Amino acid sequence: MAEPYRVAVLASGGGSNLQAILDACSRRSPAEVVLVLSNNPDAGALTRAQNAGVPAEVIGSPADGPALTKALQDARADLVVLAGYLKLVPPDTVTAFAGRMINVHPALLPDFGGPGMYGARVHRAVLDSGASVSGASVHLVTTEFDRGEVIAQRTVAVLPGDSPDKLAARVLAVEHQLLPEVVMAAARAGRVVSLAK
Ligand code: GRF
Q1: Within a 10 A sphere around the Cβ of 152, how many other Cβ atoms?
Q2: Which of 10, 81, 104 is the best mutation target for the ligand 1 pocket, counting ligand atoms within 8 Å of the beta carbon and taking the most?
Q3: 78-133 pLDDT, tens per residue?
Q4: 84 CA to middle of ligand 1, Å?
Q5: Contacts of 44 (CB under 8 A, 6+ apart)
Q6: Atom of ligand 1 nearest to the CA of 85
Q7: Mutate to test the pocket of ligand 1, among 175, 179, 183 (most ligand atoms within 8 A of CB)
Q8: Active site includes 123?
Q9: Contact (Cβ atoms closer than 8 angstroms) between residue 195 and residue 157
Q10: 17 lines ligand 1 (CB under 6 A)
């Protein structure tokens, strides 16, 4: 078997998106999660990594580009996935992994994205807009929040009486499908490929 496609994951929170990738990689997969990094020492994502036997480290200074780039290069990451990572990636690291760093966002970019647009605030904004659909987006990471080329998207219905939490749960379920699909497509191709139409 060819060398597995080496995936590093950055996460700040519970890590359910990380878990979806770990689960997808556990079945005869061309991809392997080789490193999990978090800016939050209490992140559930770090525990999930440890439970999966994956090296997990706390990023002491998320703004320290050279240190982050070194950690990712030392892990020989082929792909870097931001899975609920809430810090801006330093330009040094964005450049070092240009075209090989992706982020999942719980809305249909380019709408409802940008600084401060994460968590319930995203879904509150979608509901307030009166939109009838929302969804998940995967995009290439640039030096600005949520502005890179969208490479995969999947919609969900916004239902009457939806609360931010209900919509968030519906979108999260789709994130858990879409992100592993993008990771596996990249692993099979040996590079990030767009699944967007
Ligand atoms: C997800 O909603 C994701 O879209 C956003 O942050 C959340 C991460 O959740 N970027 P988890 O930590 O993967 O459970």
Answers
A1: 20
A2: 104
A3: 999 999 999 999 999 999 999 999 999 999 999 999 999 999 999 999 999 999 99
A4: 4
A5: 13, 14, 15
A6: 10
A7: 175
A8: no
A9: no
A10: yes
Nearest protein Cα to ligand 1, atom 10: 84
Enumerate domains of the chain plus CATH numbers.
5-108+136-154+175-189 (3.40.50.170)
16 close to ligand 1 (CB < 6 Angstrom): yes
Coil, strand or helix at 23: helix
- pTM, two decimal places: 0.96
pLDDT at residue 164 in the model:
98
Q: Which residue, 53, 122, 110, is CA-closest to 86? A: 122
